[in-house]
Amino acid sequence: MRKKIVAGNWKMNNNFQETKKFLSQIKVKEIGSEVEVMIAPAYPFLKFAKDFLVGTKYEIIAQNIHNKLHGAYTGEVSVDMIKSLGLNKSIIGHSERRSQFKETDEILLEKANLCLNKGLGIIFCFGEDLVDRQSKNHFEVVKNQLINTVLKVEKNKWSNIVLAYEPVWAIGTGETASPKQAQEIHEFVRDLISSSLGEDVSKKTSILYGGSVKAGNAKEIFSQDDVDGGLIGGASLVSEDFLTIIESNSSY
Ligand code: PEP
Question: Which of the residues in the chain have pLDDT under 50?
Fold first, then answer.
């Protein structure tokens, strides 16, 4: 059974007071039992956020982890550190990590295996950039991104993997993939998982869409057959919008 998920990626936004204010606003709101909701605040506030939301349906997750276990990597955060806070998931492979921090498929596979071997689930992001889309290479690009990374992960680890299709041209740009564009890639990816790992895995893997999902367009995107929810950037910083987006994934 695929899980319905809405995950907010705060990126480098919200200081401590803002984090506390946002979490206070959502904590008092009821959310549908059929949707899993995750929030990825900045590292310094993970422990606070987790403790603050204890007993609620909200799960706090990390935005990233380093690809080595420990050592001389100034400023970095390891999978063990995240696990030691009692967290169970991290986003991996966000396009901003790929482009700004030069994270290659090889590094992302290392990260994925490190997390999964340590019992940390992953939301693994992938997606083509504008040039690939314009040259109609998007299916090939997405396929290669997945073949070079998560599709190399052992089948028995897949229960801890969520995928997030995030076309780079739609991230933070206000331009959203149409529901049809999202559906055709999600369906393509589900077929790819099926042919690589079996239908049993593909049927159970949640695939989220990310890229300018807003309160006003979430419902139509989430209603597509192979879209199981969203990874939300900008709109996850506004509590009312985030709650509306969660609600939009509660009735399908
Ligand atoms: C993201 O960064 O993962 C994202 C989808 O951002 P936005 O919703 O702002 O496009």
Answer: 252
